[in-house]
Amino acid sequence: MHEMALAEGVLAILEEQGPAQGFGRVEAVHLEVGALSCVEPEALRFHFEAVARGSLAEGARLEMTQVPGEGWCLPCGRMVEVGSFLEPCPHCGGFEVRVTGGEDLRIKELEVA
Question: How would you label 22-51 residue by residue, b for 16+ Cβ within 10 Å and e otherwise?
Answer without folding.
Answer: ebeebeebebbbbbbbebeeeebbebbeeb
